[in-house]
Fold these 3 entries.
Entry 1:
Amino acid sequence: AQSVTQLGSHVSVSEGALVLLRCNYSSSVPPYLFWYVQYPNQGLQLLLKYTSAATLVKGINGFEAEFKKSETSFHLTKPSAHMSDAAEYFCAVFTYKYIFGTGTRLKVLA
Amino acid sequence: DGGITQSPKYLFRKEGQNVTLSCEQNLNHDAMYWYRQDPGQGLRLIYYSQIVNDFQKGDIAEGYSVSREKKESFPLTVTSAQKNPTAFYLCASSIHGANLNTEAFFGQGTRLTVV
């Protein structure tokens, strides 16, 4: 069965520092992978998705993710954190339904 | 504007009552989903429907029921058999069909509280 694992339920970074949120997937077939962001009391918004056309995927708000088959990873990064990036982030994989990780709450320190 | 509308945003339920959460989409999407969100547990799938008049149980379907009589609507009923219904409920839809690389679009959620 396909699944995703997010390492670190809480991550804190200083404003301007690199953001790295980790996601590892388990799949026996090429995965369909997504990153979503959720602000308090709101729904989820798509940040980016892996399309197999390129291993480095660029998304909205300066985020990007790199697909590494050898490591079964799809980590999310942003070179410079902004206060507005504080939110919860979810990695997801799709089979015939979307399966989400447990989420990583990002805190940005001034 | 196209999108997914969940209502109400906040809902209070008394012990032993059934309540129905509404989810409507005008994106012409085939597939719809209901997730439950609890702190630290991510999103857990309750039910999903890939086509009108058909739906499947997700991982935590006990105590819930759904219907899919129209393409644009996928209401979720939280029955009295659900012993711990207090949570944030999210509805989503996706276009799917043959293209598996499409994202889900989410509503703004309904926060259900048992009083």
Entry 2:
Amino acid sequence: AQSVAQPEDQVNVAEGNPLTVKCTYSVSGNPYLFWYVQYPNRGLQFLLKYITGDNLVKGSYGFEAEFNKSQTSFHLKKPSALVSDSALYFCAVRDMVNTDKLIFGTGTRLQVFP
Amino acid sequence: GAVVSQHPSRVICKSGTSVKIECRSLDFQATTMFWYRQFPKQSLMLMATSNEGSKATYEQGVEKDKFLINHASLTLSTLTVTSAHPEDSSFYICSAVLTTYTQYFGPGTRLTVL
């Protein structure tokens, strides 16, 4: 079965420090992977995606993610966290059967402290 | 670009009434839109896939007679919650597919049924 796992419910980091939000996936075939961010009472905003090519993907707001096929991971990273990065982050993978559908992880709440 | 709007952003209704939520792609056409439901501190649950000009495809366990979906044009999909009850209170989010594999999300609608 296809799935996405975000093992951490919450990640706390001090402002200015690097941050990592973890995501692992389980799909057959080549995965198409996505990161979205959700601010309180708002919809999801697209951050970045990996479809093919360079394993390091750069996205919006200074975020990047690294696709690691051997570890089946797609961790989200940022070199220097901002308080305004505090939000809920979702990792998703394309459904291999219905390719327009996304399978979401359970979300990780990122809290950046001043 | 790629802006998706939802209306209303917040609605409170009495039990037994019906509520319509609109989802519009403002600057692009979307053959496919999705409707999600999100409970507090939880991930998104896909309710249905809305296809322009055809019947919606509902996920297992979602009552199609209760959650009516209409995708009358390439820029508008509506979700009608019929005979709403308190357990239908939730955050409803739509998304529209712009390019292959990438969904853009609306800001969400908070439904409270008294």
Entry 3:
Amino acid sequence: EVQLVESGGGLVQPGGSLRLSCAVSGFTVSNNYVTWVRQAPGKGLEWVSVIYPGGNTYYADSVKGRFTISRDNSKNTVDLQVKILRIEDTAIYYCARGLWNEYWGQGTLVTVSS
Amino acid sequence: EIVMTQSPATLSVSPGERATLSCRASQNVRVNLAWYQQKPGQAPRLLIYGASTRATGIPARFSGSGSGTEFTLTISSLQSEDFADYYCQQYSDWPLTFGGGAKVDIK
């Protein structure tokens, strides 16, 4: 059974950092696309980043230079390092498998506030 | 960036009726388009990928069509569990982008 479980969210001040983690079971992260998508309170979905099986990474313009996606094949996890956080980064952050995301986690909430 | 525009923003439909949602891409995305359903407090659920292929376990009343820049999601006979938000997403070019969403509510 495929499962994705996000962790690492929390309350952080503007300019702060967090490391979000996506623990996966039922497939191997090294052989799959893994994506991060976020959703601000009451708003729509926003694609954030993806890591390819080959290791290539891509980012939304709104997070480029501040967010970094990486994976740990030994732990079967995909992390999203989020830095220089802004108020507008407040959202539920979901990880999902694939370019068209067939499997999703339940999300982790990041709140950026002073 | 490819902009995805969904219409209408809200669709009011009676149970048993047909619902048709549209999604327009600002550039040609071929058939690299997915549809998702989201209910309050839940993660999104993949309905359609490749513009017209139903995901695993998705009922046949959901169908997708289109290619290039114009796409449609049709729910042939709305059930109570279908009242939700719906999003399209293109995965043809970076950055991947979602439409703004469409809400299907009870008339």
